[in-house]
Specification:
This protein is an alpha/beta fold. 40% of the residues lie in helices and 14% in strands. A six-stranded parallel beta sheet has the order 4-14-13-12-11-8. It has a three-stranded antiparallel beta sheet with strand order 1-2-3, with no helix packed on it.
Amino acid sequence: MSEENSFKTISGDETTVQIGDHKGIETPFFAPEIKNWQNDLHVTLDYREALDDHNPIIVPAWDWPRLREKNSILQRKGEDETPTGKKEVEELEKDHPLIHYFPPELLAYRGKTNILRKYLLKRDKESKSDFKSALQDGDPERAIEELPKLTRPFIRSNLNPILNDFNIRKETVSNTGEDPEEIWKSLPDTHYDGFYRQIANEAMERSSAVVVPPVPQIQRYDGDLITAVCKANAKMSKFARRDGESRAYFHLYLHYTSFSDSHGDERDTASRALKILRSEVERGDYAGIAVTIYKGEEVFESSTPPRVGTFFENLGSFAEEQALPVICPRSEWLGFWATDSGVDGFSSLYNGSWVYRSGGAVDDVDQYGYTMVPSESRSLKLRSDDGKGIEDHIADEGLSGLDALPDEPPKPPSDFDPNNGLQSRYGTPFYYRRQFGKPQKLNHIWEARQVRSGDSPTARGRLEDSQNGYVEFDEES
């Protein structure tokens, strides 16, 4: 890290960090992750009063310029029916640091190629159309040229999901079948330049922003793959700068099993990767550290609380030495648990998922998703046949948490199916999620406040007394 940069201040029991231009951000904090405009961005704008001062917000790198300009957002209206959307978005960008985060799983799994294709092309209608036309003409190479160079080999590895989406016979196109790890290890330096530079430039157009770059996922220790991780981070550090100062975070993307593969005297992969992180950050120039754990809810299924705790304690101590903030994207209550060990911020997608997914629920109840119950540190379905559901909480006294959030769903509008019992009570699934289910995710802010204020002395103490289903504890932790 550059000696003149200091992005973390510790005074007594209080820790504050700087993200972008915003200083004095109290920790621990929760940063909601925006994925789409239909729900997430609207919810964030609707409930700005629920956010902390300078509350960080995670936005989708590459896709944020499109989301902020959607007509549905710009045409939002105030009480006097005058358009307010453009001003609301600009105020959000001015008042809150934006963490531009590219969903790393899209470059880690061959089964995600169709989601990756949609993510990359939805900002450009012409490229989207040309891609489809070229595939239908049996010319996959011409189609792939519509995508950024860095992403092309990932798409080539498995075109089948894309062909299925366009109803094109699989036999017409061949896949390379190359593993994403191998693709990362063989990427030419020039492939980073256009894609990473564009992500960085678009982030730096905002008044206060940092960038968490896409990097390879680490499941088993592989020296060449670690080199690729270091290269990807160094490239973004080169491009994401403002007034000569770094705005890039060093990103470590770990598979949940990386904490459990130690043998004899050999340390587990996560610990070995952390050692590399220390070396790279010490000699590089970064504004913070980000650690994403793939399927973090399963980390305690393969490892133990002491081992995971030691990882975060070592990470937190190093970040304190370097005066750098540490965030854990997509970490939910695992990240909250880790704030006791020096992690400054944790986050979650509004839908509670750990990754971007395709498709939707089939069952009526499942379409309403999971809703957070802040008093229990868990999320529940609207209705459950084998336990308590959100309906039961509504029937009691509603949900507690932030005063700015609704305790129970609003009455549904008239566009519901009168023959559907759920819709007659809660509206359509989209209405329920937008008006009630997704806003409840902001109650993680309330959890963080409880720890900062001392009402809950520690995150782990709060979780240990909760009904959370995946965070575990051990007397040795």
